[in-house]
Design brief:
Layout (H helix, E strand, L loop, with lengths): L35 H13 L30 H12 L7 H13 L2
Helix pairs in contact: 2-3
């Protein structure tokens, strides 16, 4: 092993996946009634954070509910979405504690 290579530990992953580009394919039949801003926010949230789109978001006010059955569609990124993205990009992705750090960051951001 070269001296510059790091080993993973119980606190840190030795490899982290990064995105350098994203290609998004949109089915125009599924986006009728959705404006370009809503679609762009949805794509940003799904693409930048590598979200599992079928995940249960519960009652969280999020753009991720854009394609779920509802009387009222979200108009754009909510403060919840913005705090999530901010927390994802300001936490250490190599830390095994990233998920809890994201949650803590969101509580701090939303609580302001």
């Amino acid at each position: 092993m070269a001296p510059s290579e790091e080993l993973g530990t119980r606190l840190r992953y030795n490899a982290v996946q990064t995105l350098t580009s994203v290609i998004v394919v949109v089915d125009s039949n599924r986006v009728s009634g959705i404006d370009i801003g809503q679609l762009a926010d949805y794509i940003a949230m799904a693409g930048f954070a590598q979200i599992h789109l079928d995940a249960d978001t519960g009652t969280a006010p999020t753009i991720l509910s854009l394609f779920r059955p509802s009387d009222q569609r979200p108009q754009g990124l909510s403060p919840w979405d913005e705090s999530f993205l901010h927390s994802v990009y300001t936490t250490n992705q190599a830390s095994v504690m990233q998920e809890s750090a994201i949650k803590r960051g969101m509580f701090e951001q939303i609580g302001r």
